[in-house]
Amino acid sequence: MSDRPVVTRIAPSPTGSMHIGTARTALFNWLYARHTGGRFLLRIEDTDRERSTEAAVQVIFEGLAWLGLEPDAPPVFQAARAERHREAVDMLLARGEAYRDYMTPEELEAERETARAEGRVVRSPWRDLSPNDAPDRPFVVRLKSPQTGETLVADQVKGDIRFQNKDLDDLILLRTDGSPTYNLAVVVDDHDMGITHVIRGDDHLNNAARQTLIYQALGWEVPIWAHLPLIHGPDGAKLSKRHGAQAVSEFDAMGYLPEAMRNYLARLGWGHGDDEIFSDDQAISWFDIADVVSAPSRLDWAKLNHLNNHYIRQAAPERLTSLVAAIHESRGRATPAAQLAVLERTIPLVRDGAKTMLELADATVFVLDQRPLQMPEKAASLLSGETPPRLARLKARLVEAADWSVPALEGLIRGFAESEGVGIGKFGPALRMCLAGGAPAPDLAGALVALGREESLARLDDALSRAA
Ligand code: GLU
Fold first, then answer.
1. pTM of the model
2. pLDDT (tens digit, 9 = 90+) per residue, 236-283?
3. Would residue 216 count as lying in a domain?
4. I need a labelling partner for 297 at 20 to 30 A (CA). Which of 39, 379, 429, 445 fits?
């Protein structure tokens, strides 16, 4: 196995959403393939014809594309390969590694009860009967598994797991309608796709024993297994709806950036020392299955938020602008082209505190609001007494300002406060009210720069004319 180039895969069943656990599995497979210079493939396990809609398949493509984990070849669709699965069963029958089992449902039920009473697994009498005795009635095809000894799953994460063969019944490979069963299809597909490493959730550990027996019966090389511990909720319980988001699309909708998700998911079950923040390139150069831990990992929203804030602060303003514009649009507020530049100018001024893209969008609402702004009730008391004439004097200085930048405007505001003999607190909240109408806004100079000179002065005029 070691001399073959690494080929990994994910094999999601299209169920309508892409679970965060599938995303983590995809990431680990992708990282390992990239780390070893191998390939990362995708197989859609769409044999459940009722659930596997085109839309559900699309959700997987979109989830992987959003996460930036594109496979290296077009996807393989499992349902389309049923003929090939049956061909493998024919091979097994020809080799005497499988047999047709003609037990009727009633006979099977009776055998089940006897087996239960005797504390053993179900055994079919057809295992040892010759095909010449075959009756003319429906049959399933079963694997002729060894009944003694053990099957070793040498798992790269869990260690050596031994399964006693006497506890494994003869697995059904083809149902009475000739349809291939799940474990058979997985083995044939993984073999044909040249998969060298099966990295997946540890809910499939028992299947690994079954699948090992099928590989051996077919005379095929068994892949290297690596079963990942599940992701648990922050309370240590199995991840469920009550822990909040579970689908990749929900994390997107909540305003998490894909690079933050990649960094975060990489830390769920794997790590490189104490490094919390790392680039894709670093993860690729460091990632090794040997460093995956076998204990379940817990979702930690505070850590995810911290990472997301980090990546929001790093991201190119143009990219954040189109993401923020899309959020505003989804909320019914289209951003005309002329306003995109305003958004882009605003984002660097407000992004430091944003944990998600939704928060970033919230922080930019004030620049998109149309004049005259809706003022909350408390505006009237803020804009009374000495304040309106003072703001009018400030406005005169702003009109003259030579440099409309944050440091210059900070200086101007400080200088103005000194000349008035008051602290900034005396007029700052009122100025902010004029500029943002009670919506969240950055510091005064930041709000002025975000709005630009013309809009800032117009908003001040609006507010002062109302106060007059
Ligand atoms: N289709 C399986 C699932 O969605 C994955 C099978 C595998 O990775 O072998 O859980």
1. 0.93
2. 888 888 888 899 999 999 999 999 999 999 999 999 999 999 999 999
3. no
4. 39
